Amino acid sequence: MSWAVFGWAQIGVYTTLDEVLQEAFPEVEPEQQTLWLTKETKSQFKDELGFEIHGLRQRYWVGEERTLWILEEIGKEYPITFAYLVEEDRVLFAQVMEYRETRGGEIRHAFFRQQFDGIRLKESKLDRRIDGITGATLSVNAMRKMAKQALWLHREATNQS
Amino acid sequence: MIAKSLSSFVRRWHVRIGLSTAIVLIMLATTGILINHAQSLSLSETRIPSWLAVWSYNLKENDIETIRLGEIEAKTDGVELWVSADGVTHTSSCSENLIGARRFAEEIWVACEEQISIYLVETGTPELVEQINTYSGLPNPISRFGACNLAPCVESQSQLFRYSQLQFNWQIAEAEDGMFFWSEEPQTSKAFIVPLELNWHRWLLDLHSGRLFGSVGVFVVDLTGIALLILVTTGIIRWLRIRGKRKC
User: Fold this and answer.
1) Residues B170 and B201 in one domain
2) Confidence band (pLDDT; 50, 70, 90) for B177?
3) Minimal Cα distance from A83: which residue of B?
4) B172: which strand partners?
5) Contact B52, B203 (CB under 8 A)
6) Beta bridge partners of B88
7) SS3 category, B114
């Protein structure tokens, strides 16, 4: 029973879109844009990162030279909503916006998220090791995976514009 | 004399135990091999058929909401969303109830209470373009979905919103702004939906451990484990005796 209560306590919205936008773009009004993912782009993505990207269109916010990506990935059973702010091919911050799993919610804590600050893609891998959390392996993997996706998409969006 | 009767006793029970546990042992060996290769056989990605799920897990019928748009059908059980056309089904997620669906040029928009899934049906088969939710600026929760002035529109918390295809955002609309054509309401029916977690890997694990047959199944597997130990022991005893005789 106590485990169930503890588990449900992890489910929730930890930051709203407005809060993330305010933190990401404190001085400018960000513009929402879309990145079209053609068959070639998706194929290139899979070849480089080793997993598939879903959908044909990805929304993001852009302001100054920064892009904000809100991405969802299934941890074990339910999607986790992440936000990644990227500038000059490195992550400025990573946030867990909404967590829906019953276990693994520790990834929302700053001590874990801050490991992503400044991280880059190097030969299709994150250039730094991200320490895991016992009992939150799948959520940690989801956050790592989406960090790679955000960095890749930022590069693609920058190249296209 | 004692050694002979002990040998006969061991042989008799070795055969009896072997025969009585043969079926369970074959099942354990087969499922064990398959479980070992679950990843390469993609067993976690294939759901078990609904009849097997009903038989194995006493699956209950789910409420299914369906909307048809000509050849295209959108169905949900409140968790997953299936959009089918031309014999091809695309599976994604649906949050809560299905609210409506509508075609806009080459796109089909399917609205659930907290999320809209957009599909491209240019080629006849549905292809997911994107899913939008509160994090993409979608008003939440949606109570009605439809079209106004050829653009997607939603009603949320008694407020109307129209989607701007140019700015990719939802803008407040007034009832006087144009004609609103709300989507028809979904039809509800009952069907067996096999959750994704009920895949072949899970089924084999449950069969291998005996959990599929409740506590009795686990007990039988435990007994078979003990029987296997006895078979090994009696087998070694018999082999030693035969080896001893041959040496003499």
Assistant:
1) no
2) low
3) B135
4) B161
5) yes
6) B85
7) coil
Cα A104 to Cα B101, B196, B237: the distances in Å are: 35, 20, 51
Residue-range definition of the domain harbouring residue A123: 3-160
Whether the upstream peptide bond of residue B141 has omega within 30° of 0, thus cis, is yes
Domain count, chain A: 1
Q: Which residue has the tokens 């977690």?
A: B197
Q: B167 in contact with A at a CB cutoff of 8 Å?
A: yes
Where do the DSSP E strands lie in B61-143? Answer: 62-69, 72-76, 80-85, 88-93, 98-104, 107-112, 115-120, 127-133
To test the contact with chain A by mutation, choose from B116, B135, B138, B165 the residue with the greatest count of A C-beta atoms within 10 A, namely: B135
The verdict on B110 and B154 lying in the same domain is yes
Q: Is A108 exposed, middle or buried (0-12, 13-18, 19+ CB in 10 A)?
A: buried
B235 and B186 share a domain?
no
Contact flag A56-B134 (C-beta cutoff 8 Å): no
Q: Distance (Å) from the C-alpha of residue A15 to the closest C-alpha of chain B?
A: 10
Positive/negative CA dihedral, A72, A73, A75, A77: positive
Task: Read off the pLDDT band of B1 (50, 70, 90).
Answer: low
Q: Are residues B185 and B66 in the same domain?
A: yes
In B, minimum Cα distance to A33 occurs at B168
pTM assigned to the model: 0.71
Q: Give residue for tokens 């209560």.
A: A5
Cβ contact, residue pair A17, B120, below 8 Å: no
Query: Taking CA atoms, what residue in B is nearest to A81?
Result: B135
- Chain B partners within 8 Å of A59 (Cβ): 130, 132, 136, 168
- The count of structural domains within chain B is 2
* Average pLDDT along chain B: 86
Which residues constitute the domain of residue B157?
A: 60-191
| Complex-level ipTM | 0.77
Mark whether B145 and B107 lie in a shared domain. yes
